[in-house]
Amino acid sequence: MWYRKTYQLVLICFTILLACNSDDAIPSNQNNIQKTLIETFGGSKNDSGQSIVSTIDGGYAILGYTQSMDGNITNKQDESYDYWLLKFTAEDELQWQKTYGGSGDDRGSAIIQTQDGGYAILGTSNSTNGDVTGNSGMQDYWLAKLDAAGNLLWQKSFGYPGADTGISVIQTNDQGYLISGVLDVTASNGEGNTERSTNRHAGGDYWVLKLNALGIIEWSKYFGGNFTDTPEGIVQTADNGFIIAGGSDSMDTDISGNIGSYDFWVIRISSTGNLIWEKSFGGDEIDEARAIVASGDGNFIIAGDTRSSDNNVSSNNGAADLWLIKISPNGDLLWEQTIGGTNFDVSRALVRTNDNGFLLAGSSRSNDIDVSQNKGQNDAWAIKVDNEGHLQWETTFGGSNIDFAYGIAELNDLSIRVVGDSSSNDGDINENRGFTDLLLVKLNE
Fold it and tell me: Is 27 exposed, middle or buried (0-12, 13-18, 19+ CB in 10 A)?
């Protein structure tokens, strides 16, 4: 009879193994998050949510851009792209929405709530009319200061004859602003620096401008090499300097340690814009940083994506993975983690949570390893990690078409909002009004 018992035991083990390998088997760390709201906003053209910020009243505000004149957009004059700002209550009721720009192409990329309860919004504009004055070329950084109701208080354009792209903004400890993005140094003919001797630069560089509370330039510096250098995130340091993270494929001028192709390229500058140090992180393939936050213990967390599996990158699950690193104030690599599946998985936003963990938003094409599900092409993707970068939960949302997440925020009640855009009209997406709609998702742990 012993052989019968052995056969039964083998059969049970084989059945369990099949269940574990089934596409329906979901790792336990992916079951404890609820999607309680998935909604789209927009019109018959292209609409997108690029950045989200929790607000002091318990609600949140979303900045993106819209090309539509219909649907949810009620105050646009033409079908050019405009900045689009939507303000919601904590209960997800739309309080107001406004557009800003001119008759050209104006696309918002970053929003912060300022200490006076208003907002600062940054992006890129090539308009010379409407709300926009002073455009200098193909496209400029365009920064607007708003009151708490979204009324325009002042606006500034910064740029030269080329394509200059505004990406990130923070309010500084002195109530001014630091803004960064890409300067077309070739088109500016080297202009864009104040009080900094420069070697030869070309292409696009990190361009950093320190402004006072009224948007007047205090200093302006650019950093990079002869290829493509794109800054994506800023934090202010304890000594009132700044750390800026992005991606670079340069290996000259300001970049001393390129590892291979694109790297995470991180610079620390003083309060007056002097370069203190610069470091490259990554492997032999493409590695691009998308966001940086203070970790709460004096160090910094940087998120992006990697296609590497060597040098600083200990593992890769396939194609591209979300890559998370922790660095010291001196730029020392403290730890690194990769999260993803066998397809392309990236992070585009990062925030620290009330419990000292971190939320990330991005997109995924995987449905295995760390990613529980894919409904087709790119799905929007939200992730929670602990303070050591270990995955606590993840969830995807989307349909059979292309869906992206660009921003994530934790509200005062600890619920989570994710924003991006969607071109799907099935799966999780109940309605699509045009080409792409702004996508809003509410999550509860």
Answer: middle
- Give me the CATH number covering residue 63: 2.130.10.10
DSSP strand pairing (300-306 vs 287-294): antiparallel
Evaluate whether residue 7 is within a structural domain: no
**Lowest-confidence segment of 186-195, 204-213, 216-225 by average pLDDT:** 186-195
**Token pair of 413, please?**
């009640």
Q: What share of the chain is helix, strand, coil (3-state, %, to 5)?
A: 5, 50, 45
Lowest mean pLDDT among 14-23, 67-76, 371-380: 14-23
Is 1 a member of any domain?
no
At 291, list the tokens: 């966001």
307: its two tokens: 């296609």
- Asked if the model's pLDDT at residue 282 lies above 70, the reply is yes
Which residue from 361, 354, 229, 341 is spatially nearest to 291, judged by alpha carbons? 361
The 3-class SS string of 145-179 reads: EECCCCCEEEEEEECCCCECEEEEEEECCCCCEEE
pTM above 0.90, yes or no: yes
Count the domains in the chain. 1
Domain residue limits at 65: 34-444
Tens digits of per-residue pLDDT, 54-105?
999 999 999 999 999 999 998 898 999 999 999 999 999 999 999 999 999 9
Contact indicator for 395, 382 with CB cutoff of 8 Å = yes
* Residues of the chain above pLDDT 90, percent: 85
Q: Is residue 379 part of a domain?
A: yes
